[in-house]
Amino acid sequence: MVSVYIDGDACPVKNEVIKVAERHSIPVVMVSNSWIRMPASITEIKQVVVEKKPDEADNWIADNIEKADIVITSDIPLASRCLKKEAYAVRPNGSEFTEDNIGMALSSREINNFMREIGEKGSFHSAFSKDDRSNFLSKLETVVQRALKMKK
């Protein structure tokens, strides 16, 4: 069975994931460093609260995700670890991490970290938009369809 894992601490599309997962009867696992309040009507979510240590939620997801599962994350190293297990990885803005683009994403991340360390680049992130949410819903639906076919 396909499951969706949410890297939950800073995920802006939790409700969207839940709606798509409910439509397809797919279990959702919300992994975070603290309890996340969810509507009482939602019963098909497993919440996993890990220790408040760096990368603890990422480690839990990477250790538990399986082939054809889906992770929702902006964390590039986590996405890379999940892809190695033949899982899918989608950013909240709707872009998908793939074997074709993960190397460039990891390299860009390292360059950006270095530029910040030497003071040449700030940590600017663009605001999450309605288009991002729409792109995410479309991509998640596509990825869910692929994952369900892969699991058959």
Please tell me what the overall shape is. Answer: globular
**Total number of helices:** 5
The CATH topology is Rossmann fold
CATH architecture: 3-Layer(aba) Sandwich
Count of individual beta strands: 6
Structural class: alpha/beta
**Which bin fits the share of residues in helices?**
40-55%
Gyration radius, rounded:
15 Å
- Trace the largest sheet across and list its strands: 3-2-1-4-5-6
Mean pLDDT: 87
Largest sheet: 6 strands, mixed
Low-pLDDT sequence parts: none
Q: Give the N-terminus to C-terminus distance in angstroms.
A: 9 Å
Strand proportion: 5-15%
Query: Any idea of the CATH class?
Result: Alpha Beta
Number of domains: 1
Sketch the topology as an H/E string, one letter per element.
Answer: EHEEHEHEEHH
Q: Which features characterize this protein?
A:
152 residues, alpha/beta, Rossmann fold, globular
Question: Would you write up a description of this structure?
Answer:
- The chain has 152 residues and is α/β, with parallel strands linked by helices.
- It has a single domain (4-151), classed as 3-Layer(aba) Sandwich (Rossmann fold).
- Helix content is 44%, strand content 14%.
- It is built from 5 helices and 6 strands, in the order βαββαβαββαα.
- It has a 6-stranded mixed sheet with strand order 3-2-1-4-5-6, with helices on both faces.
- Helix 1 (14-24) runs parallel beside helix 5 (130-151) and helix 3 packs antiparallel against helix 4.
- The model has no long low-confidence stretch (mean pLDDT 87).
